[in-house]
Design goal:
3 helices; single chain; mainly alpha
Length: 116
């Protein structure tokens, strides 16, 4: 019974991750298309990419949490732990590079001050 509850929780976290990405993509797209001439505006494009990047970052956080719970608590096979480690490393790398793309600095660095 306990393991079934944990599996449902892990599945719920993974579903939240997918929803965060999908909703974020939809909101970023709607904002992009609502702008005056979005296909000719570089600012609109950058804002669109940042919105999509933020939604991917949030979704990846939920997906990693779901994977950790599912693999560590539910799975008892050592191979699953190795798969989890690979998944977490890949997703962490993606999160860090997306953070750099969206925020303009690494997660451990202070944000840059504008020169204006």
């Amino acid at each position: 019974m306990f393991f079934q509850i944990i599996e449902v929780i892990a599945l719920g976290l993974e579903a939240l991750g997918v929803l965060a990405i999908l909703i974020g993509f939809m909101l970023a797209t709607v904002r992009y298309l609502k702008r005056g001439h979005p296909f000719t505006s570089h600012e609109a494009y950058i804002e669109y990419r940042h919105g999509m990047g933020r939604s991917i970052l949030l979704g990846l956080d939920f997906l990693i949490a779901g994977d950790i719970i599912k693999t560590v608590i539910v799975a008892e096979v050592g191979l699953n732990i190795l798969v989890l480690i690979a998944i977490v490393l890949i997703r962490t790398f993606l999160s860090m590079t997306l953070h750099l793309e969206v925020e303009g600095h690494w997660p451990w660095q202070k944000p840059h001050k504008d020169a204006s």
